[in-house]
Amino acid sequence: MDFDHQLRNALERTQPSADFAGRVIRAAGKQATRRNVWVAWKRWIAVPIAASILVLAVGIEQQRRQRIQGEAAKAQLIQAFEITSGKLGRIQKKVRGVLK
User: Fold this and answer.
1) Residue 4 included in any domain
2) Is there a domain that residue 10 lies in?
3) Domain of residue 30, residue span
């Protein structure tokens, strides 16, 4: 056989098998099922990612509030020390005045 004859035989029109349509439909169904699985997987992976972002945001906000509360407590403590220092200074002056 020469090359031209082989090529003609390979490209010759043939009738599909009897179950060809069924195989095509089954293959298309499998393709759709795979696509549906992928879409469902993307939805299920998005839920934990969104939950993680939410937990992270809540944690950051809680840290910010604690820092603000800590700074307010520090300011109150410094003010209390200043008041106490002033009162102790006046008491100390009175005690020195009595002792002289």
Assistant:
1) no
2) no
3) 15-99
Q: Tell me the C-alpha distance between 88 and 82, whole Å.
A: 10
Whether residue 90 is contained in a domain is answered as yes
Confidence at residue 9, expressed as pLDDT on a 0 to 100 scale = 80
Burial 1-13 (b: 16+ CB within 10 A, else e): eeeeeeeeeeeee
Residue type, 81: F
pTM comes to: 0.47
1 token code pair: 């056989």
Q: 3-state DSSP: the chain helix, strand, coil percent, rounded to 5?
A: 90, 0, 10
Task: Provide the number of structural domains found in the chain.
Answer: 1
Q: Count CB neighbours of 90 within 10 A.
A: 10
Average of per-residue pLDDT across 2-20: 82
Q: How does pLDDT run across 50-81, given as a tens digit for each residue?
A: 999 999 999 999 999 999 999 999 999 999 99
**Position 39 in a domain:** yes
